[in-house]
Specification:
This protein is an alpha+beta fold. Helix content is 35%, strand content 27%. Strands 1, 2, 3, 4, 5, 6, 7 and 12 form an 8-stranded mixed beta sheet that branches. A 4-stranded antiparallel beta sheet has the order 9-10-8-11. The N and C termini lie close together (11 Å).
Length: 279
């Protein structure tokens, strides 16, 4: 049995970049590596079946399955994934699980874990930047050039977020349905490109939140509930939408969010420079 952990990642604003090479395909974007993440336990089987249980429920988990096919084709495994946050809500759990299962399958942490995870994410219709961001040893990575290093490049701005609250205001959001919509991608490209460049030139905490809100509102990504929640939060503290989910991140405490909204699902975390590792 082998066990590995990887932190999660919130994308704040971005623009997709697709090429004819999976390793240069990705996105330019701004995000936060977060202390909550995914833990994967891998046990070998005597047959060639791959059985995956995610948060107590049997799951197809196509990205995780693809990672195992790439690293150890034809082998069977029992895979248990324990996510520290809800999936499909913009918290990077898919990427975190892919990286963690790669480490467990390799039996050690190496740079190869990002390559396998990135290939699986892109080919199976997952995210386009979380794996790259998580390869950065920093709290607040900026994906300056798209794709996985050494093709892509990432910089840590040095920003830190000691206390963040994540709140979920709706059902799961299918990332692929958004990033594969040509009209949405065109708008993301024009707006996201400008905002990423602005953040690189002048990275500040307040600027990150304000640019995040401008991105989600201008591109039209906010649901009515998420948009209303952000309007309620704005007089009290910084808040923005997680890409891509019916969820928000804010520097208000969980108690403050509860006072404003009642019993919505909330999770406390901080930014982190912790790297993926065997447990």
């Amino acid at each position: 049995m082998t066990k590995a952990f990887c932190p999660g990642h919130i994308t704040c604003f971005f623009h997709p970049v697709r090429t004819n090479d999976v390793l240069t395909t990705g996105s330019r974007g701004v995000g936060i590596r977060i202390s909550r993440g995914a833990t994967v336990t891998l046990e070998e089987r005597s047959d060639a079946r791959v059985e995956i249980v995610m948060d107590g429920v049997s799951s197809e988990a196509k990205v995780t399955r693809k990672v195992l096919e790439l690293i150890r084709p034809g082998e069977g495994f029992d895979v248990t994934i324990e996510n520290g946050l809800p999936v499909s809500q913009g918290f990077g759990m898919s990427a975190a699980g892919a990286i963690a299962v790669a480490i467990a399958a390799l039996g050690e942490y190496t740079e190869d874990c990002y390559r396998y995870a990135h290939i699986a994410e892109v080919t199976e219709g997952g995210g386009l930047g979380d794996v790259t961001a998580l390869s950065c040893r920093g709290h607040q990575p900026v994906r300056v050039r798209p794709g996985l290093p050494p093709y892509g490049s990432i910089e840590d701005t040095g920003l830190r977020f000691k206390d963040l609250t994540l709140a979920v205001f709706g059902d799961k959001l299918n990332t692929g349905s958004v990033i594969n919509d040509p009209d949405v991608c065109d708008l993301m490209d024009s707006v996201g490109r400008r905002l990423v460049d602005e953040h690189i030139a002048e990275p500040t905490v307040d600027g990150l939140f304000s640019r995040s809100r401008e991105f989600s509102r201008t591109v039209g990504l906010e649901s009515l509930v998420v948009g209303a929640a952000l309007d309620v939060l704005s007089p009290y503290g910084n808040a923005a939408m997680c890409m891509l989910g019916h969820s928000i991140f804010t520097d208000l405490s969980q108690d403050e969010v509860f006072d404003l909204f009642g019993d919505v699902p909330t999770y406390g975390c901080s930014s982190t420079d912790e790297m993926p590792h065997l447990v």
